[in-house]
Amino acid sequence: MRDTLNLGCGRKRMDAAVNLDVSPDVGADVVHDLARLPWPLPSNAFGSVHAYDVIEHLENVVGVMEEIHRVCRSGARVHITVPHFSCANAYQDPTHRHQFGCLSFDYFSAGHELAFYSAARFKRHRAQIVFYPTLVNKIVNRLANRNPVAYEQRWAWMFPAWFLSIELEVLKES
Question: How far apart are CA 60 and CA 57, in angstroms?
Fold first, then answer.
C-alpha cells in the first residue's frame, strides 16, 4: 500500500498517494464520504496525510482529526490547508462549515487546556498564515507570522489572510 493519503483529492490527485474523495468522477482510489466515520482504511497505515481545502467542509472536525490520527503511524506528518477566518471565502462558500485560526489545531496537543475533547494527539511543526501576494501583504505576512495571536486579535479584519498552512506530527504511545 502507498504511504501517503490524499484526503478529498478532487481533481488534485497525487500519483504516489492513496487518493480518497466522495466523488466517483475524479478518479479517486477510494470513493468515500469523509463525514462517514470510520473511514474504510486500515489503522496505522500512513506516513503522511494531505488534507488540502477539505476539513472546512466537514461537520465533525474532532472526529476527522481522530480518524487522521487512527490511520497514521506514530511520527506521520499531516499537511492541512484551510481558509483563514478573515478570508472572505471562509464565509462566502456555502459549503464551508468552519472557519479556522492559526491556533485551531493546537486543541489536539497535549499541553492545551482544552485537550480533553479528544485523545488524538499531534505536535505542531508549522502553522503559517498565507496572504494573497501583493506588495503590502509581503510586509503583513512577515509581521503576522512573527506574532500570529496579535495579528488575529488586532489586524486580521484590516489585512485579511488567504488561508492557513499547517503541518502536524502524529503522536502515539508505543
Answer: 9
- Which ranges of 52-147 does DSSP label H, i.e. alpha helix? 61-71, 88-92, 135-146
Q: By the 8 A CB rule, do 12 and 4 touch?
A: no
Q: Is 82 exposed, middle or buried (0-12, 13-18, 19+ CB in 10 A)?
A: buried
Q: State the pTM of this model.
A: 0.94
pLDDT digits (tens, 9 = 90+) for 15-61: 999 999 999 999 999 999 999 999 999 999 999 999 999 999 999 99
Residue 162 one-letter amino acid: W
Closest CA relative to residue 110, chosen from 126, 122, 125: 122
Residue pair 128/158 in contact by the 8 Å Cβ criterion: no
Burial of 116: CB neighbours in 10 Å, binned 0-12, 13-18, 19+: exposed
